[in-house]
Design goal:
Elements lengths: L4 E8 L14 E4 L4 E8 L2 H13 L4 E7 L4
Antiparallel strand pairs: 1-3, 1-4, 2-3
Length: about 70
C-alpha cells in the first residue's frame, strides 16, 4: 500500500481527545456503546502498524479495523 487510505479503528472503552496526537492525529469519537472509534487518513501501511502498535502498548482491546481508499 503506497497511497493514503482512510481508516476507522474501533477499540473498547473511551479515550479522551488528548490521545489524538499519540495516534498520528486520528479523530477520536466516543460511541454510545462504550467504544471509541479512531478515524482519519494514514499515509501508508507502516503508519497503520504504528497506530496498532500504540493500541497494543496501551493494552486496549482492538475490535475492528476498516479501510477505504477515500473517506466515506
Amino acid at each position: 500500500m503506497d497511497k493514503p487510505c482512510f481508516y476507522e479503528i474501533r477499540v473498547e472503552g473511551h479515550l479522551t481527545d488528548r490521545w489524538s496526537d499519540w495516534f498520528d492525529g486520528l479523530a477520536i469519537r466516543h460511541d454510545a456503546d462504550g467504544e471509541t472509534t479512531l478515524s482519519g487518513l494514514l499515509p501508508d501501511q507502516a503508519a497503520l502498524f504504528g497506530v496498532l502498535h500504540q493500541i497494543q502498548g496501551l493494552n486496549l482491546t482492538l475490535i475492528s479495523v476498516n479501510r477505504s481508499s477515500t473517506r466515506e
